[in-house]
Sequence to fold (443 residues):
Amino acid sequence: MYDPIVEPYPKSHQQYPDSYWAKSIEKFPETTSLVNDIQADIAIIGAGYTGLSSAYHLAKKYGKSVVVIEANDPGWGCSGRNAGFVLPGTGRLSLLDMEQKWGRETAQSVFQEYMESIDTVNDFIEQGNIDCDKTPGGYLKLAHKRAKVEGLRKQAEKLSERYGESVKFVCSQEVNNAFLKSANMFGGIYFDKSFAVNPMKLVLGYYQMATEAGVKVFSNSPVINWQQKTNHHCLYTQNGRVTAEKVIIATNGYTGSKMHPLIANRHFPVLSSIIVTRPLKISELATIQLKAGLMAMDTRRMKYYYRLLPDNRILFGGRGAINGKKANNPINKKRLAQGLKNTFPVLDKIDIDHFWSGWVSASCDNYPRINHSEDKSIHYSMGYCGSGLAFSTLAGKRLAQNICEPESLPNLPFWQSQLPKFPFSQFRRVGLSAYYALASLRD
Ligand SMILES: Cc1cc2nc3c(=O)[nH]c(=O)nc-3n(C[C@H](O)[C@H](O)[C@H](O)COP(=O)(O)OP(=O)(O)OC[C@H]3O[C@@H](n4cnc5c(N)ncnc54)[C@H](O)[C@@H]3O)c2cc1C
Fold:
């Protein structure tokens, strides 16, 4: 599998992974690659949620000429292979962590931003009439040990006091009555605004809306070289070149090792993996009683996340391999199957029909940045730490605003600094291995 730490860019003409989502698409859009030299106001690298959302807003709202250059096909990165949880958040800092770090007022504004990220996904779905199997169901963060329950209860109390009724604590009995039956879950925090989608249908919807707004999207055209001139940038692909005044880097976890010095060593691509089971039998469904549309995640350091799919399969995700070479090693699939069994023992030995992985972008201080170069000609948004479906959609809109009407941006920490560099970045994977070993012991 492509490895962004080792390789400079993803090679072209790579298939979508053998995912449940790719299988659900009857006909992918026909795309073309870049075969000549073109000019645009803004060139965007990467056709996932970030790139397509910013392209759409730049073209539709601000009338800019926009070209998106994608190494493979739209949604080939994380956007077409995630779990489809539309969550009110990003990064790894909770709102309470943020209160401690930046104060209550800023945390309140971040909360508003998270709510707006969900609204922005909804706006896309409504305006583009995107049929992405949207299923309301809410998000449940579950204690995987009794010792975690009290912490969650306190968090829920504070969150609902400060951020409204959309957040509540549910005890283990309520979890069992209303959400899922598992002897190994002990209570949790429930957010009712979240919903589930088919992420591939969503990103293809963004693609269609962007192209209808006049954006030119070129597939199978990795940027292999970048030259900055006095007033413009030249991005080179195998068979063509884009010249643009401004460039947006929207490559997140798929950002190759030599993309641009502005972001070098400022994030850490980490693999997250998913298994999807065969459809459950009625008896199995009756045993686990997992509520349709519910998105669940546990409190492990190495979190498991899961949901019931519309055709009664279970999607179950968690950490992946340490590097691209080992991504498809069956041991990763086995680890997830074991996690599924621990959560729902009745599903021991259930057939797994799909297994795939994708690169998430971890930032050193656990939250993303939307920022730009000193001369404001290069913009980027990355570091969502595996929680970027809703936030990247909003980030795309914010990138467009930052270019066209920067005064309209909310004043939040996401824009106030660059992503920090990882110290000893060449040892990131050694650190990750050690972290995984320690975390699995403590979990
Ligand atoms: C297994 C998994 C499950 C996840 N589940 C969830 C979830 O349920 N909810 C949630 O909120 N988040 C989830 N995420 C994270 C979420 O999917 C991402 O945060 C989000 O999709 C990021 O979108 P993006 O557009 O920034 O990047 P991507 O969708 O990754 O797009 C980047 C694109 O850049 C392209 N690219 C890279 N280099 C070049 C180059 N040199 N030239 C041209 N193109 C290039 C790539 O081909 C890629 O298509 C999950 C991630 C994974 C891997």
